[in-house]
Automatic annotation (TrEMBL):
The protein, known as: R-spondin-3
Keywords, ordered alphabetically: Disulfide bond, Glycoprotein, Heparin-binding, Repeat, Secreted, Sensory transduction, Signal, Wnt signaling pathway
Positions of region (Disordered): 174-243
Pfam families xrefs: Furin-like_2, TSP1_spondin
Family classification: Belongs to the R-spondin family.
Amino acid sequence: VHPNVSQGCQGGCATCSDYNGCLSCKPRLFFVLERIGMKQIGVCLSSCPSGYYGTRYPDINKCAKCKADCDTCFTRNFCTKCKSGFYLYSGKCLEKCPDGLEANNHTMECTSIVHCETSEWSPWSPCMKKGKTCGFKRGNEVRFREIIQHPSARGNSCPATTESRKCIVQRKRCQKEGKGKKNREEKRKKSNKDESKETRQESKGRAARRQNREQRENNNKTQPKKRKAPNKEQDLAPVDTAH
């Protein structure tokens, strides 16, 4: 063993040097060179730092640098996150997204263009004017629809969600608030009053008829019976004097 190589290393190193740091790593750890000023030293890590990707070999596991425009990568040719000013698309970092795609400044990725989507129109509302449905001839009716998918930055914008059109209704008077209910209540009271009046009149009629009938019966009981008038023809018949 070289005099500068030590076997009693710390920090995951299998072999190390006072000047160069780790020279080899313990199993499953990745070897990477870190720059400190003008000097590079070897370190052993459980995973590769940002801007590096890991490769495993039978004798050593190494961390290699990603491409210059890539912040993190899976392999040298497949980036997972781009540096500022670049947009990720299919593992590559691009300054401009391809046709048919748009740049998402939030995720820094090239994404599909999303157009606005709306629901079906609702049925037309009743014909109204100034919040009323009576007391006029011409008014307006409206219908609505909802936005179910908002567009992306380059997508088609959403159309109007309300529509209005003129309408004509049959002219009719508006009942004042509470008047219809009041009229119904008055009609009901009047009907009950008329029924009560008819009932009282019928009761009085029945009572009068019963009283008359009872009076006739009493008169018949107290009045003497009339004698039967004699037959004048019999009184004036001729007397037989032949005997």
